[in-house]
Design goal:
By secondary structure, the protein is mainly alpha-helical. The protein is built from 18 helices and no strands. The protein has one domain. It has helices at 14-33, 49-66, 70-91, 97-117, 123-129, 131-136, 141-152, 155-166, 178-190, 193-214, 217-234, 242-265, 273-305, 307-314, 317-321, 323-338, 349-370, 378-387.
Length: 398
């Protein structure tokens, strides 16, 4: 009798969990100062000049550092996770694509739970755009990279700019988000719990997806999913490939500064709003993408190359392993703190960032306790179990 050889599989990558933990922490801080998409703040007229200064410094500083970048890291890691799951099943001789489509449907349900409390959530968008890596996962690296680059270069914006330059009569189509924003703000500021849930799941979802489309997030997310998948294919999150991130860091730095400068001055030179809006979205999307690459490169270098920094970053691993649970629960907590149905807190930006830090601290402590006894977070475990229930398109072998 011969022994059956062990099936090779990808081990969990701690560096990816560090990045996940960092991204969710950054998202919590941003959401907290935004009052979780409920932009209602106390009158600042009576505040001291010092508090006004710290409010402005915290708002501008956090959005410069993390606005549009934390979600980009999260999206990059979504594509990376898809590769790991798909390739693990390929190594076992199974095709994961249909099963992953079922997994996306489950993610849509989880996103609806999150959306019931918080209109700015992204899991619904991820569930819808997640079909993109499924479509391209058997294509060559060159094809995947080409499609990713096209998505990140915002072809819709380029089309609108070209049409506006060619035809003076061209009017870019825009979704009227005003009534949906008004409905969600009214529910957040004056409705009971169940009315808020109803509005969030209808008008809130419409305005969230419309905003994502009109601000280039849909195509950027698709491109980041594909880049994350490609990073997984080529093993870029492994310690031995850290040198590759040095080249990424160099190019990202070279591109970021002119793009950032152009983003701040373009309104002084382009007066045609038909061109200015899509051009602004394109440039903003690109400079945030470059800054995201700078952050990822820096974190990976710190984790793999600097012992002291590595010890600090390693503390984020438990938080990153439970990133979905932390992401969903922060929306529920934030809604309960700031919306009318909950405590309806009226805090300034400086106080709000400390609330965000407190949410992180509590979640972090619970993560460490939970993972002493479990291998996955609560939502992660439920998502995994539901992924592998018996389905007509195949069974999970022992």
């Amino acid at each position: 009798m011969t022994d059956t050889p062990a099936v090779r599989r990808h081990a969990r990558v701690d560096a990816a969990d560090v990045l996940r933990g960092f991204a969710v922490l950054a998202i919590i801080l941003l959401h907290s100062i935004e009052h979780f998409n409920f932009y209602s703040f106390p009158d600042t007229a009576g505040q001291s000049a010092w508090i006004n200064f710290t409010d402005r410094a915290i708002w501008d500083g956090l959005f410069f550092m993390f606005g549009g970048k934390a979600y980009a890291i999260f999206a990059l890691l979504f594509g990376f996770s898809f590769f790991i799951q798909d390739d693990n099943q390929r190594l076992r001789g199974r095709d994961f694509r249909l099963r992953f489509c079922w997994r996306l449907f489950l993610l849509l349900l989880i996103g609806q739970l999150n959306a019931a409390f918080f209109t700015g959530e992204v899991l619904v968008l991820y569930a819808l755009v997640g079909i993109v890596p499924v479509i391209f996962c058997r294509c060559s690296d060159r094809t995947v990279l080409t499609v990713a680059a096209i998505c990140i270069l915002q072809p819709v914006c380029l089309w609108q700019i070209a049409c506006s330059l060619i035809s003076p009569d061209y009017v870019p189509y825009a979704i009227d988000q005003g009534p949906y924003w008004a409905a969600t703000m009214a529910a957040q500021s004056g409705a009971g719990f169940w009315e808020m849930v109803k509005v969030n799941l209808v008008e809130g979802q419409i305005v969230s997806l419309a905003w994502a489309w009109e601000n280039g997030r849909v195509l950027q997310t698709a491109g980041l999913f594909l880049l994350g998948m490609l990073i997984g294919r080529q093993g870029w999150f492994k310690a031995e490939y850290t040198g590759r991130w040095g080249k990424v860091l160099a190019w990202a730095l070279i591109c970021f500064f002119p793009l950032y400068g152009l983003n701040n001055m373009i309104g002084d030179y382009v007066t045609d709003t038909r061109i200015l809006r899509p051009l602004g979205i394109l440039i903003s999307s690109l400079h945030k993408f470059c800054f995201m690459l700078i952050m990822v490169s820096g974190l990976l270098f710190g984790y793999y190359k600097t012992r002291k920094f590595s010890r600090v970053l390693s503390q984020l691993i438990p938080y990153g392993r439970m990133s979905m649970t932390n992401y969903v629960t922060q929306g529920i907590i934030g809604s309960a703190l700031y919306y009318y149905w909950g405590l309806y807190l009226r805090l300034g930006i400086t106080a709000s960032v400390f609330v965000g830090i407190a949410i992180f601290a509590v979640q972090y402590a619970l993560c460490r306790i939970w993972l002493r006894h479990h291998s996955h977070g609560p939502l992660e475990k439920l998502w995994k179990l539901a992924t592998w229930i018996e389905m007509p398109f195949g069974r999970r072998s022992a």
